[in-house]
Amino acid sequence: MTEADFEAVASLLSAGRRFLLTGHRNPDGDSLGSALALAQALQDRGKEALVVMRDRWSSSYEGMPGVSDVRVSAELPPDWPAGWDAALVMECPEPERPGFPSLLSGTTVNVDHHPGNTRWATQNLVVLPAAAVGEIIADLLDRLEWPMTPRIATNLWVSLVSDTGSFRYGNTTARALALGARLVTEGVRPDVVNEFLYEARPLSTLKLETLVLGTLELHDDGRVALVSLPKRFLAESGANEADGEGLVNRARGIEGVKAAALVRESDEPGVFRCSLRSKGSVDVRSVASARRGGGHRNAAGCRVSGTWETARADIANALAAAVSQEPG
C-alpha cells in the first residue's frame, strides 16, 4: 500500500455517483461494518451506495445501523457494471470470496488487510498492519475529509471489535486502540453495541452452541480442540447458518488449547468448511493456505474434501503440526 493507493480510491469516490459495496461470503462484523460505514459516508455526500452480500449474517449484527438495508442476493444488480462507477469489496483476498461471478466485469476496489491478498482488483487498497478493514475505511474518510457520524462510527466500532476480539487479540495495536477511543468520542455507545453483539442472543443460538460443544474433541495432549457443525444441528436448534460464527472461539478458549477448528458441513456434498483459530505464535494461516484457504496467523479458514472422519483427522493433524512449530 502507498499513499497513491489511498489517493486513487479517494478520487474515485469523490468523482463517482453510484457504488456497490460487498464483502466475503458469510459476512462477519468487519466485512459488514466496514461496508456499511463506507456506504453511509457515501450516502451522506448525496451519492447512491448499495451494500449487497451473498449470504445472511449472524443475528448478533441485527442492531448495526443500516443493516436492514443490506440486500442479500445470489447476483449483483442487473445493471452491473454499466450503471455503477465501481464495486468496493471488503476483506476479500481473492475475487472469488464475495461469491459473485460477474464482479470482475466492472471497476473494482479491493479493500483488505490479509497478508495473502492477491491484489486482484482494478484498484487495491491493502493495508497489512490494519487491525480491521474498518481501520482502513476510517483513514480513507479522513483523507476525503468526510465527517464521521455516530452511525458510521458505530459500524466502524463493530468492525474493529470483531477483528480484535474486543481488543483481546494480538492484532490490537496502539493505532487500533486510538481509533476505538476516537469512535467513542464520535458517538459510539460501547454498552449499547456490546449488548446487541454479545448479550441479546436468541435462544436458538444458545441451543446451537450446546449442540456444537457436545462434539468437542481434544487432540495432541489437549493442545488442539475440534468442534463440528453438521447441518442437522441448524434444524434441531432453529438457528441459521450464520449463527455458527464465533463458536470456534469457544473451543480455542479452553485452558491448554493452542489451536482450534470448527468443521462444518457445507451445501456441497463431501466438502467441509473449516474455521481455524490459534493463540500466540501458532500459525493457522499456513494450515489454511495449504488447503487453498487463507486468513491471518491466528484466524483463518479453508475447505476440506472427504468424509467427516477424514476431514476432522486432516485438520486435527495439521493443527497439531502447527502447534509443534511454536517456538519454546
Spell out the blueprint of helices and strands.
Elements: H1 3-15, E1 18-23, H2 29-44, E2 48-53, E3 71-72, E4 86-90, E5 108-112, E6 123-126, H3 133-144, H4 150-164, H5 174-185, H6 190-198, H7 203-213, E7 217-219, E8 224-229, H8 232-237, H9 247-252, E9 259-265, E10 271-278, H10 284-289, E11 294-295, E12 299-305, H11 308-324
Parallel strand pairs: 1-2, 1-4, 2-3, 4-5, 5-6, 8-9
Antiparallel strand pairs: 7-8, 9-10, 10-12, 11-12
Helix pairs in contact: 1-3, 2-3, 2-4, 3-4, 4-5
Can you walk me through this structure?
There is one protein chain. The protein is an alpha/beta fold and 328 residues long. The protein has two domains: 195 residues, inorganic pyrophosphatase (n-terminal core), CATH 3.90.1640; 122 residues, Diaminopimelate Epimerase, Chain A, domain 1. 38% of the residues lie in helices and 19% in strands. The protein has eleven helices and twelve strands. The strands form two sheets. Strands 3-2-1-4-5-6 form a six-stranded parallel β-sheet, with helices on one face. Strands 7-8-9-10-12-11 form a six-stranded mixed β-sheet. Helix 2 packs antiparallel against helix 4 and helix 4 packs antiparallel against helix 5.
